Amino acid sequence: xxxxxxxxxxxxxxxxxxxxxxxxxxxxxxxxxxxxxxxxxxxxxxxxxxxxxxxxxxxxxxxxxxxxxxxxxxxxxxxxxxxxxxxxxxxxxxxxxxxxxxxxxxxxxxxxxxxxxxxxxxxxxxxxxxxxxxxxxxxxxxxxxxxxxxxxxxxxxxxxxxxxxxxxxxxxxxxxxxxxxxxxxxxxxxxxxxxxxxxxxxxxxxxxxxxxxxxxxxxxxxxxxxxxxxxxxxxxxxxxxxxxxxxxxxxxxxxxxxxxxxxxxxxxxxxxxxxxxxxxxxxxxxxxxxxxxxxxxxxxxxxxxxxxxxx
Length: 311
Known about the structure:
Low-confidence stretches: none
Distance between the termini: 27 Å
Radius of gyration: 21 Å
Structural class: alpha/beta
């Protein structure tokens, strides 16, 4: 399967001033991420809050500036932002905040076409009706405002907006975390249906391992701005390699009795003061002396892991 998106050594940093007399601190949000996303797949990105998942996603879509690194789409750099917006879109986490409350649904959905295409009003209306039906909503909602809908309906509208320019690549940033549990399954199934029907490529950001196992073809595990493990979803779930991945999967609730949970100790280190060596060594149950000073390389071919246990 060919690559649709290729990321090489991506780094994102922020300069933050804590107090009037204090020096600026550098937040290392993304630290040398290299990633390949195959055409037509759903790649899930998982990790704790604050590990850099959303920053990585926003940087891929040119919503954040990178310090260094290269992002290639179909082997081409995304230099022309207007053209790039037709290729890649984003579904944001909170449908309550991502839809303009002063615009009717028709205005929200037609805006990308008005800006990017030279279509007639009739053509725009035709496309808007097609997309709103595609996500399971009725044409009658086009004359309504976002506040008149439930959370699940708003997220469907947000998905329809992302589809307006017929992109090849969509980033879904925690698309169901702000929704009621009863509605989450409907939106998850909609994403799966759209992916299969239109051969879309998704980067799915979530901390819900159940959603990942159901939706994703591959999964990448992120810790403190780095990808520590990546592989086919079933391989990672059945045979997790990195101690951090094992801890994440151990924390997933199970109905049947299981072995003692592999819970992490301590808090996530500050991205402004990263540990030396392996970034996970301060919390790792299998830490070795060299983990504290040396950075592990990547081991494996299809199922890759950054850990000295597998060198």
